[in-house]
């Protein structure tokens, strides 16, 4: 994977409209649109939801090429899954045949929907983390789940774990890039082998990646312990965000779009 691509959890500094939206609005909107995407069954709903995500990509002013590049690995797995789904579903009219194997309309449509939904979900996740700083996501989750504190749910710990998990994704991506570069410099090439050998050749890459991720997790735990972190301690927020009228308008647009997608 190229370093020029953007991964979930990687923040891209900017001053776009999407960067300035309150983090709680972005979290609620992402969660709402993600749920609605699984109710899509018509071409009209596909078009509206796709137009909505593309509009967000343009408003974010984040490199569209970099966001699309980050979907390459996901697309490979989705294509393989779609081939299996197309071959398994045998309902509806026959669209065409490959040799003596018929391709049915329902299988083709369902595979296309799964592929499209997953790609849009990944784009929404990338847009959320690319336009929202990690500590803002943590604070937004904690404030949205605040009422659960009354029933002694460890909201702060849940928000912290989610923030750390998101932050580790780009870190592991960078570690993978460094390991690949180091092994290529030692004559370890994977791009000139067959598909089966390329798959097995990833094992020597995953082992050091796993070891280095454990080392980073240990360093993080020691750093938190050295700073006196306690799971039940009281913490303050350095930069408090305020809900403005523009945030209400942005949330209204998201809710309206979700309702329109469900209606279509």
Textual characterization of the structure:
This protein has eleven helices and two strands. By secondary structure, the chain is mainly alpha-helical. A hairpin with a 2-residue loop joins strand 1 and strand 2. Helix 2 packs antiparallel against helix 6, helix 3 packs parallel to helix 6 and helix 3 runs antiparallel to helix 11. The longest helix is centred in the middle third of the chain and has 31 residues.
Number of H- or I-type helical stretches: 11
What's the SSE pattern?
A: HHHHHEEHHHHHH
Q: What class do helices, strands and sheet pairing give?
A: mainly alpha
Q: Strand tally, please?
A: 2
Strand order of the largest sheet: 1-2
Helices, strands, pairings?
Elements: H1 17-20, H2 23-37, H3 43-60, H4 64-69, H5 72-88, E1 94-98, E2 101-104, H6 105-130, H7 134-144, H8 155-185, H9 195-200, H10 203-226, H11 245-263
Helix pairs in contact: 2-6, 2-11, 3-6, 3-11, 5-6, 7-8, 8-10
Summarize the model shown.
The protein contains eleven helices and two strands; from the N terminus they run αααααββαααααα. With 264 residues, the protein is mainly alpha-helical.
């Amino acid at each position: 994977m190229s370093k020029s691509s953007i991964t979930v959890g990687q923040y891209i500094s900017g001053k776009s409209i999407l960067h300035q939206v309150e983090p709680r609005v972005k979290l609620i909107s992402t969660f709402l649109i993600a749920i609605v995407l699984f109710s899509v069954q018509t071409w009209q709903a596909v078009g509206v939801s796709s137009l909505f995500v593309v509009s967000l990509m343009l408003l974010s002013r984040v490199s569209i090429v970099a966001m699309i590049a980050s979907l390459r690995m996901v697309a490979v797995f989705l294509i393989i899954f779609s081939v299996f789904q197309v071959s398994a579903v045998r309902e509806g009219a026959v669209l065409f045949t490959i040799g003596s194997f018929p391709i049915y309309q329902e299988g083709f449509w369902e595979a296309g929907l799964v592929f499209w939904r997953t790609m849009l979900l990944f784009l929404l996740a990338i847009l959320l983390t690319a336009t929202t700083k990690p500590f803002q996501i943590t604070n937004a989750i904690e404030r949205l789940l605040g009422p659960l504190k009354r029933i002694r749910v460890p909201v702060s710990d849940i928000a912290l774990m989610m923030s750390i998990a998101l932050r580790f994704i780009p870190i592991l991506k960078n570690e993978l890039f460094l390991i690949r570069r180091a092994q290529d410099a030692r004559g370890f090439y994977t791009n000139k082998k067959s598909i089966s050998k390329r798959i097995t050749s990833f094992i020597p890459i995953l082992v050091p990646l796993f070891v280095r991720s454990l080392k980073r997790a240990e360093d993080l735990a020691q750093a938190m312990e050295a700073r006196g972190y306690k799971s039940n301690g009281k913490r303050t927020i350095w930069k408090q965000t305020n809900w403005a009228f523009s945030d209400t308008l942005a949330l209204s647009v998201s809710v309206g779009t979700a309702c329109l997608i469900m209606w279509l």
